[in-house]
Amino acid sequence: MFKEPYKIGQTIEVRGEPMLVLGIENFEMFSSMILVRYTCQRLNQTDFVSKVKAYRQPFNVEMVIEIPHKQWEETVPGIRLGSIHSIKGEIYKVTEYTGIALKSTDLVIDMIARPVYPIDRKEAKAKLFSERRKKLKIEVL
Description:
The protein is built from 2 helices and 7 strands; from the N terminus they run ββββαβββα. The protein is mainly β.
């Protein structure tokens, strides 16, 4: 019934050309259809210099969400790149999709998110004071 989306690292053929799936850029839902936009590398072009990412930033976290088919249309729009989510009292911003799969009729989305930290209280008070001063046009001597 459902066609499984491609996975990162999977080799596919597009218009007769072999491609390697490097990343998932975005996806959209159209009733019961998933439209996925991928970043791919042409495997038949080898005249380039590879620049491997030296390290993955340690403050990123991996997240997985499993969405039942009946909830796709209401849940998926809220899980976009850049969207903010509160999980166990912590705030995270989605930065990258790492996988989209089907588990029976459930949609499973793997993603990377980074924590969003507030500035410290002292800095927040200083910014608030500065803004109030601007509004009142007061100068401190």
